[in-house]
Protein 1
Amino acid sequence: MNYILFDDNNYQNLLPLTYTRPVASLRCGILTMNARWEKMLHEKCSFKTQDYLQVKFPLTIADDNIFINGSLFCNSDMIERIQSLVQNECLIHDQMLVAARCAKEKAIHFSIDEVIKNFKTSKLTTDCKFLQNPWDIFSMNDWAIRFDYDLITKGRVSQPLASTNQLIGNNLFIEEGAKISCSILNTETGPIYIGKDAEIMEGSIIRGPFAMGEHAVLKMGAKIYGATTLGDSCKVGGEVNNAVFYANSSKAHDGFVGNAVFGEWCNLGADTNNSNLKNNYEEVKLWSVSKQSFVKTGLQFCGLIMADHSKCGINTMFNTGTIIGVSCNIFGPGFPRNFVPSFSWGGAQGYTEYKLAKASETAQKVFARRNLTFDEIEQNICKHIFEQTQEQRKY
């Protein structure tokens, strides 16, 4: 069976994080959405996403195809029902298309509206969880880490924890090559997963649920509260509470971030802090890029959402409920505005456009530090986002 994870219109609600990736490539828990599907399906999945992202996230079409909503969290009951679909049948949950099965010709011209209109429709009655808003990523991270921990570690044996550490509880799994020294790990509040070749330096204190990917580094004296995830090759220090870092991002110094999401290739200067609670304890509203207005989150604790390639200088302060677009460079005293459009340069004193050539030059240097190439595919994606967000940069 050929499995394809598709974006529906909900990808717009997940901007700016989905400017640079399909919905199914978002990380919540230990795994990305697509990695979780692939692990449970025992098959590789391809992507049906925005045209400008399709080269980086290719689409594979076969004679027999099952399309699955990329914002959907999978479980075993759901997989059984999806795999039982027949040709030209689809599953619906609360008017959302969950999955559909079709032959090659219809897959080439796949359209959500056409599928719902013309296919045999069945309702999915099992419990469904979707990523529908940026804040869902940290709000659902506790549940997702626990789910992924059981999925990844079932039937496997952890590497031993060095005797210099203190372990509270038993839900710890350490992959091969990971190093942990002189740290306290409390798994009574949730499981802790340490990826291959990751490192936890001396003096770190961690309360689960917590996960770190391959080659990630937790700096000396870090204080981590769950539910927190560090993606592959992230470097994190200071105080962190319920935050998700995507791959290759750094918060290597002191400072607090909480109830937050950081895309790939972000870097936070020393003593960067974000507020996650309003002084009047009211519900936090967050700027919606798609609606071009503030929306209610239903949350009392909501901090910072920062999209890929964005950076901030030392001592940067972010207010409660702040959205930072793709490839922003923020610095200076005071609180930046609580929505900073993609490709912005400046801070509380004002902004100018971060020119595409300069932003690309920085990205090339950042990639080179990890022995990677900011290639033509990456450049074209950034160019498209730069042009797509032009109207937002009316400072």
Protein 2
Amino acid sequence: MPDPQTNFDLHIEKLVYGGEGLGRREGQVVLVPFVLPGERVTVAPEPERGGVLRARLAGLAEPVPGRVNPDCPYFTRCGGCHYQHASYELQLEVKRSILVDTLRRVGKIEAAPGATVVGEPWGYRNRMQFHLARGLIGLREARSHRICPVERCPISSPRINATLTTLREMIRDPRWPRFVRSIELFSNETEVQLNVLDADRPVARRFFDWCAERIPGAAAGTLDYPAAGFTYRVWNRSFFQTNRFLADALAAEALATAEGERAVDLYAGVGLFTLPLARRCGQVTAIESGAGAVRDLQFNSERAGVPVRIEHATAEMFLQRLSDSPDFVLADPPRSGLGKEVVRRLAELRPPRLTIVACDPATLARDLAALVAAGYRVERLALVDLFPQTFHIETVAHLRRDYAITGTSPDSMIR
């Protein structure tokens, strides 16, 4: 039995979803961050937790082509990025491999992205969350609540970084509320919305007035964001895509196979997909469970002059009472995926075309497995790299129903 405290050499077989490299030591899986497929490395083991052996990189015996010097001085300490040590071409190759492997392993589906949609790999984030403690502002360290103070984040937009500089000055002022633990910045590069996410008590109005004095373009409550041919009002608690370069391309890919008279947009948010979808289909119903997003969606629809039927409901509630099938369904669910009930009801309704925008390959594979069992086939698959330098994978899966399976209950379709 080898000494669990002693450094050892390891061959990295592949990267797995989550940003770590996988190797094996005497048959046991070892997970190591900041490595690349094919590398031989020396690692230092960490205390084993939950039967999983993790280690940290202690040395590079055989680096592979594609390894680069990270541009960020906080990389490997800050927990926000995972792939800055890889060239962007290699990052995309790794993500494609992880997506294909996950679909095969979890969903027993053989499919590969036919297209990879990319934008600028740096300065792309329009929304960032920063943490505060002991007069410091920054991002959390990997797998920790400790703060890594940052002066500039290279994946954040110029306006986000400019605002961060101002905030670093403001927190040294006695007027700064020391009980604020977390804030969020959201910007359209003209305005900046500042949201207090975590505080021990309510923040006084004078704090936001002060921010408006110090931060150029400070927006209160809502912010207008141009994308996909429309302008969207976004409330400070409403979700909006965080890649400022790819919102248009994501919407275009999500609607690439949309057709028919009647369409449904599940998890519609403020309407990023809903409004352009209404230009393609005669009647669109948008489903959203968040009250603030519903108000934004109603406002955005009316301002654009695009009629949309809006329902304030969960996807499960809406589909349960839907009696006939639409021609096209678009779904952009949270990380947890569509889930058992939504998949079951879609399998019963059998819309001819269905598109899923997914931010987790494992839940996508699970949902696709059940839908394929219900008679759908994956007609088109695209990887949209919304989060360069990180392990996150955004996938758009276009499905077509070719036939109906008889004698199969919806329950048996859920794995």
Protein 3
Amino acid sequence: MTQSSIMDDLNFFRGRRVFITGHTGFKGSWLTLWLLGRGATVSGYSLAAPTSPSLFETLGLIAEIQHFNGDVRDAQYLASVLKSEQPEIVFHLAAQPLVRRGYQYPKETFDVNVGGTVNLLEAIRETESVRAVICVTSDKCYHPQGWEWGHRENDPLGGHDPYGASKAGAEIVAAAYRDSFFLAENDGGVCKVGLATVRAGNVIGGGDWAKDRLVPDCIRALVAEEPIAVRHPEAIRPWQHVLEPLAGYLILVERLWYEPEKYSGPWNFGPSPESACSVVRVLHLMIRLWGRGRWKKAHNNSAAGPRETKCLRLNSDKAMSLLSWHPRYTIQAALRQTVEWYQAFYGHRSARELRTLSERQIHQYEMLGDHSSSRRKPLESVKTTV
């Protein structure tokens, strides 16, 4: 199968039945919007929107999907919903997604991120309609090595904090189900389900209001005209616009559908190397794009505070080589898209205008060029207007 552009690949979703856990979250809302625009029939299983405001509510997505309010720790209800919806494709995004909350509530973190993954994969085993599964984990699933080059998919898993360890655990669970059940031949001698785990960087974009994330923290301070308090300005992270890894997930699902044995397994979808940069660089770019603002270093009075890796990078050579996926945005372009969205929101644009802006950002991303061309450089900036 040849891939001429991301737009051609996304025609695959027209009429497909797609099931998303965690669809009310930031990343899940963008994925839901993208799939609806491509003609998919979407069902979502999630707790209520995790923040207020929320992107899910702002975009009015609940009116266009089958929405189920449920917890992935509720194995019986999750299985009943999956059985009733009979999806063909599953995206598993439901998670406890915050490192610092993992320190506060370690059992919850393991119950949701590991136990919830077990519950979903058990339900999929009993749902014959499913053909392809994407389990979203994290770049923090890797065992910290203290090096500055990017982690590859075959690097050791593990984490020195509950969140990272829980994501490593979800990876191990998914691998066990993949090899024991989903890639095992059925009675017809054909693989049953293609299953991949995906690891992205620090995603940013419009509509994220989560606590303890740099960009939402920046936006809250900028709107309040207060200094942005930062704990680790020197830390390096793989920043990327939310549409970058989502594009990779969408491309990968189609490959799983047609060639499950070849494309099942772990995948990195990280940013271009220059977008793995320090927190302080992101701060300076955010303030410049916003038009005003300042930052200060937060005081850590407790030496027993949560440990944070100083440098974290991802190597995405596998996705670029085998999927012809390539990151399209520089950090400047990703932040420009992000700031434009928030300025529209806090400029009191209507819900309809924000929905139009979000759809336009997706469309612009689709039109950026051929993802199969490794010679194209990530775009420096993209401007949008409502």
